[in-house]
Amino acid sequence: MQNITSYITELLILAFIVITFLQSGVDKISDWKGNIGWLKGHFSKTFLKNQVPAMVATILILEVVAGILAIIGMVMIISTGNTAIALYACVLSAITLLMLLFGQRVAKDYAGAFTIVGYFVVVILGVMLLS
Fold first, then answer.
1. How many structural domains comprise the chain?
2. Which of 14, 84, 123, 129 has the fewest Cβ atoms within 10 Å of its own Cβ atom?
């Protein structure tokens, strides 16, 4: 119980990562064709237009790994107080969000890019607290 109260902010950030990234990963898996189709249109006028399936697969893997690391990090914090895996989850989440931000900026979807900033701030707070 001591670790929960001592690391409540970090645990809440990790829960945010789990919900955000695992849901996104499940969505990509369950509607692969729909996601690819929409994103092909989204990137149709960019130099990334022929890379959409590879980009989605890469993001999918990173999201799922970040979500799983966040779950493991939560368990490690609660059981031992060790924050290393939690930090890795936050750093990988930040890298994933930077990749998504890059894609939104390339596609000139500035509103979409702006929404990523909120997620990024939360994840960077996690990095700061766990570093």
1. 1
2. 84
